[in-house]
């Protein structure tokens, strides 16, 4: 029989890396399985992080690297592979990856979340050549140009404010006639002269062949369609939990694992940490807190087992 780990941690974003740090310090026999070549998760695509205590204004990539170096420094073991499913019985969990299967007494699912797509014509074809899901990553390519942000939540407002610093003009396409994002962001956005809000409107098509030429928007009240000449389209319409393949493993709510601060799911020995669990606030600071809590719960679970 192969090695049976105390814990397999799936994902090496902030939650997975914090779990790895706590697991090493608790002297658990742990491995982290990450599908990407680089650790850090969504933080890697963040231009600047200004709300993580102690490191004001740090680049997202640098913060991700700091987290990973900390885990490496404590001796954490990483495997580059993609987990496709988890088989569980009373005691042992089988974590099935594309390249092999790992057995463990407990599992921390810290697979995070991904950007939601619009599902309109042109979106897929023009992704990476004018269509982006991360203004902080790709905004610089549109310096002096005209862009559109689709969405009306905090991320959309932040993206539009960020782009307005670089772009000649920024349209914000919002399906309602008021924003639901934070008031402070709304105030800032509405004060910017190079930002035009296109209220009551949805994106219908992104037009272009080898680059974006226009965004077709439709007014939901009048049905009127307009082609906005833009060089780039930034899509900020929400996120989806990375939990496909894990359906039926434990109780979920819209794909998020139902778990409280202790990160315990409805399935014994299965813990969910970070953006992939039900929670009020999906941020780095809450993800790392989950990593710590998940391992604390696991220590208790392994003792009582
Ligand atoms: C553009 C942007 C800007 C942001 N800005 C900020 C900010 O300024 N401040 C802040 O606090 N938060 C910010 N956030 C949110 C923050 O990044 C997330 O809340 C945080 O990264 C969540 O951490 P996580 O570990 O739960 O998940 P993630 O960061 O999503 O990491 C999940 C990891 O799991 C891996 N994974 C997924 N599925 C599998 C699988 N099947 N097998 C193996 N590995 C897998 C992924 O590759 C990834 O590395 C931002 C997010 C985005 C997208």
> What is the typical, i.e. mean, pLDDT?
94
The CATH class assignment of the largest domain is Alpha Beta
Biggest beta-sheet profile = 7 strands, mixed
Secondary-structure element series: EHEHEEEEEEHEHEHEEEEEEEEEH
Tally of helical segments: 6
Instruction: Return Rg in Å.
Output: 21 Å
Ranges where pLDDT stays below 50 over 5 or more residues in a row are none
> Class by helix and strand content?
alpha/beta
Tally of separate domains: 2
Cofactors, ions, other ligands: flavin-adenine dinucleotide
DSSP strand content: 25-35%
Principal-axis shape: elongated
Write down how many β-strands occur, each being a DSSP E stretch of 2 or more residues: 19
- Give the CATH H-level superfamily of the largest domain: FAD/NAD(P)-binding domain
- N/C terminus separation: 21 Å
CATH fold field value of the largest domain = FAD/NAD(P)-binding domain
Helix share of residues? Answer: 10-25%
User: At CATH's second level, what is the architecture of the largest domain?
Assistant: 3-Layer(bba) Sandwich
Describe this structure in words.
This protein is of the alpha/beta class and 305 residues long. The protein has two domains: 4-114 and 239-304, FAD/NAD(P)-binding domain (3-Layer(bba) Sandwich), CATH 3.50.50.60; 117-235, FAD/NAD(P)-binding domain (3-Layer(bba) Sandwich). 23% of the residues lie in helices and 29% in strands. The chain contains six helices and 19 strands. It has helices spanning 14-25, 60-73, 135-138, 154-164, 183-190, 284-304, and strands at 4-10, 30-34, 78-80, 83-88, 93-97, 100-109, 113-115, 131-132, 146-150, 169-173, 195-198, 201-207, 214-219, 225-229, 232-235, 239-241, 252-253, 256-257, 270-272. Strands 1, 2, 3, 4, 5, 6 and 19 form a seven-stranded mixed β-sheet that branches. Strands 8-15-9-10-11 form a five-stranded parallel β-sheet, with helices on one face. A hairpin with a 2-residue loop joins strand 17 and strand 18 (256-257). Helix 4 (154-164) runs parallel beside helix 5 (183-190). The model has no long low-confidence stretch (mean pLDDT 94). It binds flavin-adenine dinucleotide. Flavin-adenine dinucleotide (FAD) is lined by residues 10-16, 33-36, 41-43, 45-46, 49, 51-52, 82-83, 110-113, 134, 136, 242, 274-275, 282-285, 287.
